[in-house]
Amino acid sequence: MRLVEVIVLISTVLAVALLITVGFEHLVPSERVRPVAEFYLNATYNQYELRNYTAMSPEAVTAIVWDFRGLDTLFETSVFYLALIAGLALTRGLLLERAEKSGHGLSIIVRTVTRITAPMIVAVGASIGLHGHLTPGGGFQGGSVIAVLPMVVIVVFSASFLVIKGVTTTKLLVVRSLGLTGIGLTAIAVFLVGITLHMPAYVFQNMAKPDAQISMPYSVAGALISGTLWFFNIFEMFAVAAGFSIAFIALMLARTLESSRGE
Amino acid sequence: MLPGETGVYLVMAIISLLSVVAVYMAVKTRDLVKAVIYSALQSGLYSILYFLLLAPDIGLVYIPVAVGLIPGVLLVLISKTERWEKE
Questions:
Q1: Predicted TM-score (pTM) of this structure
Q2: Closest residue of chain A to B6, computed from CA coordinates
Q3: For A235, which of A46, A112, A147, A182 could close a Cys bridge (C-beta 3.0–4.6 Å)?
Q4: Whole domain around residue B17: which residue ranges?
């Protein structure tokens, strides 16, 4: 039985290796770009020729995610928020705010290294999130990098460390809700300006369109912010980071309280 | 000397094969903690593949979610049940 498994595994590996090393000459992706991709690549940062269609962001993926196809991302975010609410509903009835100190965590070496790397994790996450309109990355990527920190802290120190330090699920829920409110307000910002100035404007509008000449400022004091994209990214970063952190704190604290109740 | 593209494809082939091995180990091992670690290894190799396939956005979201968050949740789940898979 064991021999058969090894033979199957090795032959699979050899077959895949043969396919990839020999077949790549015939499987090289086409160098030509499809018309829709060509339009997005031309329009993503084009102030002069496609002034009415550009998103003023050199990063085409973020421009598609939050400008050209922004409504999809809004619903994606709401799905994530609903999943989070379902997760919190599972841990309801547990005393999440009044956790007692339990355990001493890992050794002092691990704790010191965690104290040093903690600001680095936040810095990398903030950099990915805030430069989302310039380099690969964005709000969700930056937020999920930051969300790794609470998990590491919980594992290294103790399950109730964050709550004792004042990072409660209620506060994180407030951060999360502020992030979502910011996303909603950014989506209708240009529309509200259009209503006040009695000019036509769209919901989810970023730059000026042929029949709606209002646009967000694409740079502030010479620094490119790509209109709504920067605001969407920063609010999404806070929302995602707080959302994942709530899920972890709830999971770990629920475990602690259950086991102490069992004893 | 290999042309540049061939080298990239060879690296992708090697990474794909290593990820196959990691998946096999994750499926076959009886220790669930080790299975989670093999799964995280496979995800790390996949994120390199995403980077080589010119999708760094997906790679950036794949690393924290698949290497950091999902193993964390799975380890919590394992700590609530038994570590060893039964026959």
A1: 0.81
A2: A24
A3: A182
A4: 4-80
